[in-house]
Specification:
The structure is a homodimer. By secondary structure, the first copy, chain A, is of the alpha/beta class. Chain A contains eight helices and five strands, in the order βαβαααβαβααβα. Chain A has a single domain, classed as P-loop containing nucleotide triphosphate hydrolases (Rossmann fold, 3-Layer(aba) Sandwich), CATH 3.40.50. Helix content of chain A is about 50%, strand content about 10%.
Chain lengths: ~200, ~200
């Protein structure tokens, strides 16, 4: 059975960067909601499309720009549409069955529980998250005030928690649910990823 | 300024074992409440005694049996006596000023905040914790039932949370407070400690 690492994360905490670097370090595929949404969107028959992609390239890597969804003024895409959830659910199961991978969000930790994934939660203090969001925001847009940005960050997190609760019945930010919770406020992600990869490989 | 790692932990989660192995891995001193209590108890003038110990051996290592306080039926020593807290507070500051060290509990993360310690929280699910407690319990004692043991474990954790809140004003199990939270339920402590030590050294 494939080795799976799932990452739930607070908005602006660097969860995607961590996931992507971890995938590179371990030679795993990397999937996040943008990739999964693209896959679902490209074909009316999502499953066939996924199979065709995966059969050609067992290790699937979609180069994406880290931080594309750090836009300060656009809420992260959260859609409670159960049909979309159901499509993505199937895609996630299909992708996970084909190769070792890192998956960001999308309730993947719950959907893939039979794979016994290593479950990470990535978080950070508000100043760090605001700093990261500002660094990734498009330069041609008028920046939000600190108050607006902080509020936006909290809103995205609340949406994620609600989404998770809605589809899994479980609490999103529950320590007992995760194997490791990493506060990136005082850590340099690219520097600790190799050590983190080693720790993860030590799971019983 | 000395490098400090502080470990707060749920009862039965292996926090001490993790701390001791981490100290050995990094070549740090290791202190827990037993050691600090011993130091405080050995001399009426705790500070002079501490200084005399530390000046002779800058890297202080007290061989203790891991798990001595895993006794299933004896509550962990929690004393809200402010005088004892004050003595231990001074001892902790003294020890931390002399060498790099790992300190278990005792609100050390709060007491030594000016050292900017790396703050760990170690936890585990209830079955793991019960298993660990049973493995460490004295064999000549009548074992507790599962229900009694689970209750005892929760009581110890509640006491720790109360102690922490009382002396620091802060919530003990608050993710934002820690740099890393490790769930030992599905990890083998001695196997991941070297990687963890490397991660810790990457703190900004």
């Amino acid at each position: 059975m494939s080795k799976i690492i799932t990452i739930n994360r607070q908005f602006g905490s660097g969860g995607r960067e961590l996931g992507k670097r971890l995938a590179e370090e371990l030679g795993y595929a990397y999937y996040d909601n943008e990739i999964i949404t693209q896959i679902a969107g490209r074909s009316g028959l999502a499953e066939d499309y996924v199979s065709s992609i995966v059969e050609k390239k067992p290790i699937v890597y979609y180069p994406i720009t880290i931080g594309r969804t750090f836009l300060a003024h656009t809420p992260a895409p959260v859609d409670f549409n159960t049909q979309i959830y159901s499509e993505q659910h199937n895609i996630i199961k299909e992708l996970a069955s084909k190769s070792d991978c890192v998956i960001i969000g999308r309730c993947a930790d719950y959907i893939l529980s039979e794979h016994d994934p290593f479950k990470l939660f990535v978080y950070a203090d508000m100043p760090s998250r605001m700093e990261r969001c500002r660094a990734k925001a498009p330069t041609d847009e008028k920046p939000l005030s600190d108050k607006q940005l902080a509020r936006h960050i909290k809103e995205v997190d609340n949406e994620r928690a609600d989404y998770y609760k809605f589809f899994t019945g479980q609490k999103w930010l529950d320590a007992e649910h995760y194997d490791l919770m990493i506060n990136t406020s005082r850590m340099v992600i690219k520097e600790f990823v190799p050590a983190l990869a080693t720790m993860i490989q030590n799971k019983k």
